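Sat 14:20. Reprocessing the chain from the morning session after the first attempt stalled halfway. Input below, unchanged.
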Amino acid sequence: MTKNKKTLISGVKPTGRPHVGNYLGAMKQFVDLQDDYQSSIFIADLHALTSVQNKKELEERIFELAVDYLAIGLDPKKTILFKQSDVPQVAELAWIFNCITTMPYLMRAHAFKDAEAKSKEINVGLFDYPILMAADILIHDIDVVPVGLDQKQHLEIAKDTGEKFNRIFGETFRLPEPYILEEVKTVPGTDGQKMSKSYKNTIELFASDEEIKKAVMGIPTDSKGVDEAKNPEEDKVFSLHTFFTKEPELSDLRKRYEKGGIGYKESKELLIKNLSEFIAPMREKREKIAKDRAYVLSILEEGGKVIRAQAEKKMEEVREKVGLKLK
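Finished this time. Tokens:
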């Protein structure tokens, strides 16, 4: 990797199959950034334990997520891909951070407040989630952390924690800056709401042609006939065309909507074709990568070795600063 590049790190929680909204909203941007930054991406498997407590399910999710990112273009020669749990120093640092963090401070975290508002029984891991994330970030002395606007608080907590440690024990941690991921216009789901697994309105990123067809043909429309004018801004099918139909085809489609002369069936068939052309190359690449389990695991293993060595060097300094390293 080029040494004069700024460093970047981000974590991705293994939460199941990604959809096209996930790709356009974040995944693609991580891939694009690897040419400009010395990047590290970790699979946040320790974070996943707050909600996934089934051995086989977690193992499969970790592996599948690694395959997903390799399939969309994450290059192991440019980006270090590793498992969070392969760097035990992070959990060690999180405990040290716990000891300088108050409960009232963590009770202001959005994730905790959301769970509390929903009357969920909150486990300690969910409550302490921001401190583990602070350790994920600070242990690497990173320059920037890509975040969406809704995730800025996590980085603010990390910076607060680093500042407090530096104040108590002496200058130790670099405080990273946020890299706000480009705001991608919300990708709508098949029901017109934001595409989300919780709404069950997704089109999966690596969907088969049959799955694409089923999802698109199920999009609800009004009862206007082929010759009637239609408002493209109000049509759930056209809203997806804006992401997957290129110019000049998109402009021509808009005119046909506004003047009349296209039915929803034809519009859906065109969307199916364009979605299939968008998804097929990544799906085929993914199928090939997934067959070589040893290759995927070797990438994670090598990434873990590199990051573990970096983290241990930092923890030697931390242990000395707090008084854990006797001379």
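The CA atoms of residues 14 and 217 lie 29 Å apart.
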